[in-house]
Amino acid sequence: MLSLARMRARLRREVADGAQWAARAVVLVYAALAGLAVVAFTWVAEAALHAFGSLRAQLPWAPLVVTPLGAAAIVWATQRFAPGAAGSGIPQVMAALDPALTPAQRSTLVSLRLALAKFGLTAASLLAGISLGREGPSVQLAAGVMHHARRWLPARSAVSEQGLLVAGGAAGVAAAFNTPLAGVIFAIEQLARAPEQRSSGQLVAAIVLAGLIAVSAYGNLTYFGVIEPAPFEFALLLPALAVALASGLAGGLFSRLLIASLDGRSADRASRLRRRRPVLFAAACGLAVAAIGLASGGATFGSGYAHTRGLLDGAPPEWSGYFGLKFLATWLSTWSGAPGGVFAPSLAIGAALGNDIAALTAYPHAPTLIALGMASFLAAATQAPLTAFIIVMEMVDGHGMVLSLMACALIASGVARVLSRPFYAALAQRIRPR
Fold first, then answer.
1. Upper half-sphere CA count for residue 370 (Cβ side, 13 Å)
2. Cβ neighbours of residue 64 under 8 Å, at least 6 residues apart?
3. Other beta carbons less than 10 A from residue 261's beta carbon
4. What stretch of H or E contains 52?
5. Where in the chain is the domain with CATH 1.10.3080.10?
6. Which of 56, 10, 3 is nearest to 296 (CA)?
7. CA triplet 338, 339, 342: central angle to 5 degrees?
8. How far is CA 233 from the centre of its chain?
9. Which residue, 9, 85, 346, 410, could crosslink 118 as a Cys pair with Cβ 3.0–4.6 Å?
10. CA atoms of 331 and 261, how far apart (whole Å)
11. Rounded to an integer, what distance in angstroms lies between the CA atom of residue 102 and that of residue 432?
12. DSSP classification of residue 316
């Protein structure tokens, strides 16, 4: 009877706590708004990519003009009006989690105004054909929307600003990739190593709700369709190990190259030009990206989604040089300073590497190695293996590949860790206000 009485008392306290219920309502409403914002962003970004593709189809040499001029204009506008919207957006959210920051300092990294700027500038980057993606910017966009909820939370709410940022950033991943589970893992692995116990349930609910908003908008479809994994066989071991090791090496070098390029303190001539004449440097990078795009037949422009989808659809594996070209185009696009992320381009680079190894080893089921390459390279570039393999597993409906995806992601991340610091953490440390 005593236990029953205690249960009734706890139930009454739970129901009577109006502030707690108000906080829950605010968090969930803003989670839905964050999901809708990412859905709208996705639609605009895809429309921008389609418009660039249509222009290129009519005027094949147009990228030589549009891409450098677009990159220059975008970098000028970013530095002039919204410096905090540059780059991926994930390092800004990670830096904003520092509890020592003042509200004014945090607003230079994540805010509703920066979210709107990120929306427009990233769409402009894709319209110009720059080799970046929308998924990383979705993190900063959703975090900015969720962070605005702090104005409406009750004074006694257990949800902190850091909690809202974690939920918003993870909601951005969940909605951008249509992968709610990956959003939760991203929150734990990249954004919050020790989630707040008092409000973690509300924050996880917010992440899942944003993912459900995306599912409602896109339908219950996977990002890259469905692949049928080959049954496990010993013939897969050596090709899969080759994919994991090659992806670890390439992803570690990719991360190291990006960190060195964006450090801002290098003494080489290109870095000095980037500091003194950022708009001119962005135009030069844009011209190089346009030339690479034309050399690849247009495949390296944008996020690389179409090329990756084509590989997964079962085209015969062949070495095409796409891996190196996309690697180079993504590095130059990031170095230019234009807003955009490396999540989707990393998946495209990893898919191309898996395809090349399938052709080299004559492995008969290329989509399996392509999926392993996607998870491995993303894990190596970001050093977030759990997020990487779960994103790929959900994107290709590859639940039958969970063990092989996990193993390859862990191996690749371990190899990359020897070569480079974690990319996002290093950039977050560099941009954190002092």
1. 30
2. 287, 290, 291, 294
3. 18
4. helix 18-58
5. 14-218, 234-431
6. 56
7. 100
8. 32
9. 85
10. 9
11. 12
12. P
Per residue in 107-133, is it b (16+ CB within 10 Å) or e — as a string? bbbbbbebbbbbbbbbbbbbbbbbbbb
Give me the residue label for tokens 């780059």. 87
User: For residues 107, 110, 116 and 119, what is the CA-based torsion angle, rounded to 10 degrees?
Assistant: 150
CA atoms within 13 A on the CB side of 326: 33
Angstrom distance (rounded) from CA 377 to CA 243: 9
Distance separating the N- and C-terminal Cα atoms of the chain: 57
| Architecture in CATH of 14-218 | Orthogonal Bundle (1.10)
pLDDT for the residue 197: 44
Angle between helices 402-419 and 237-262 (to 10 degrees): 40
Under 8 Å CB-to-CB from 305, ≥6 apart: which residues?
Answer: 344, 348
| Whether 258 contacts 334, CB under 8 Å | yes
Q: Which residues pair with 133 in a beta bridge?
A: 341
**Torsions phi, psi for 314 (to 5 deg):** 105, 20
Homologous superfamily, domain 234-431: Clc chloride channel (1.10.3080.10)
Tokens encoding 315: 């085209």
Residue 393, token pair as written in the block: 């597993």
Judge whether 206 and 180 are in contact, CB under 8 Å: no
What is the distance between the alpha carbons of residues 432 and 92, in angstroms, rounded to a whole number? 8
Q: Are 430 and 98 in contact (CB under 8 A)?
A: no
pLDDT at 218: 67
Structure tokens at 13: 């306290």
> Tell me, what's the pLDDT at 184?
76
Q: How many residues does the chain have?
A: 434
Number of H helices, E strands in the chain: 20, 0
Which residues lie closer than 8 Å to 222 by C-beta, 6 or more apart?
178, 394, 395, 396, 397
